[in-house]
Amino acid sequence: MMVLGGSFSMSVIWLIAMVILLVVEAMVPGLISIWFAIGALAALISALFHAPVWLQLVWFFAISILTLVLTRPFVKKYVNSRVTPTNADVVIGKDAVVTERIDNLHAQGAVMLDGKVWTARTEKEQVTVEAGETVRVLRIEGVKLIVEAKA
């Protein structure tokens, strides 16, 4: 058996590193370490061809970074997309009727929009809107509509 630093020992080290990285990849949601497992495979191949340790490290880092840079945008777009589209955004820009006085300082306020009651807050902390007034929806934050009084 060769000493640590010999091609056999480094091959085993790269194989173990690759297996550990693949196990981590299997256990963690999303793609995290697959690129480094591919880099470890490249370093393992170079170790099997008796490349010096410094060259094995260069292969490991170069292939890991290269695969990460080349595949990450594709993976983020198609594999790891966790965005759930909703129709909630259609309320932005619509008018709503205040059903409960909107007062951010007292954490109260509700509006009726398209037959549904929403919790509502004004964009500016000091602004209050009385029940019965009409407001325009600016955006959604969580389950609250952020509104402004119509002029």
Describe the structure.
This protein is an alpha+beta fold. It folds into 2 domains: 7-78, no CATH class; 88-149, Beta Barrel (OB fold (Dihydrolipoamide Acetyltransferase, E2P)). It is built from 3 helices and 6 strands. It has helices at 7-27, 34-48, 53-78, and strands at 95-103, 108-113, 116-122, 128-129, 134-141, 144-149. A 5-stranded mixed barrel has the order 1-2-3-6-5. A hairpin with a 2-residue loop joins strand 2 (108-113) and strand 3. Helix 1 packs antiparallel against helix 2. The termini are far apart.
List its salient traits.
single chain, 151 residues, alpha+beta, OB fold (Dihydrolipoamide Acetyltransferase, E2P), 3 helices, 6 strands, 25% strand
Secondary-structure blueprint of this entry?
Elements: H1 7-27, H2 34-48, H3 53-78, E1 95-103, E2 108-113, E3 116-122, E4 128-129, E5 134-141, E6 144-149
Parallel strand pairs: 3-6
Antiparallel strand pairs: 1-2, 1-4, 1-5, 2-3, 5-6
- Main sheet summary: 5 strands, mixed, barrel
**Total helical elements:** 3
**Amino- and carboxy-terminal Cα gap:** 85 Å
% residues in beta strands: 25-35%
Mean of residue pLDDT?
A: 85
Overall, the morphology is: rod-shaped
Structural class: alpha+beta
Number of strands: 6
Fraction of residues in H or I helices: 40-55%
Which blocks of ≥5 consecutive residues have pLDDT under 50?
Answer: none
The gyration radius over C-alpha positions equals 29 Å
Q: Order of strands side by side in the largest beta sheet?
A: 1-2-3-6-5
Instruction: Give me the strand/helix succession.
Output: HHHEEEEEE
Tally of domains:
2
